[in-house]
Amino acid sequence: xxTGLTLESLQQTxxxxxxxxxxxxxxxxxxxxxxxxxxxxxxxxxxGKARPRTVxxxxxxxxxxxxxxxxxxxxxxxxxxxxxxxxxxxxxRNFHLFLKVPYLDRPGIVVRLVNRQQVELxxxxxxxxxxxxxxx
Length: 136
Prior knowledge:
Elements: E1 5-11, E2 23-28, E3 34-35, E4 40-44, E5 53-57, E6 63-64, E7 69-73, E8 92-96, E9 110-114, E10 120-125
Parallel strand pairs: 7-8
Antiparallel strand pairs: 1-2, 2-7, 3-6, 4-5, 4-9, 9-10
């Protein structure tokens, strides 16, 4: 199934309470709008035999236009305790997931966007943190 979707980037938070500092960016490089309703974000280990863990299932309301990029932010824009949400940019808008805990919790984790039938639409692997990201 060719959707034209890619996971462009994964941003891990340095503070588990600041959920608005964690996100993934999904880009629609295809020719048609993509409705993410019913799709799930899953995580797992590379080459692991364990079944991927479902982080969340997206509800209706997220449609990604051709050429558009959407930042799926872990937290809630309305909760100051979760930190400032990232500033939206031209061609990159935020969509908040309202999760209660971060899920990009270890380097090497594989993040996938799957459809209702659990068919993988796109994937990316969280790189090891640099010294700067780790707070060194």
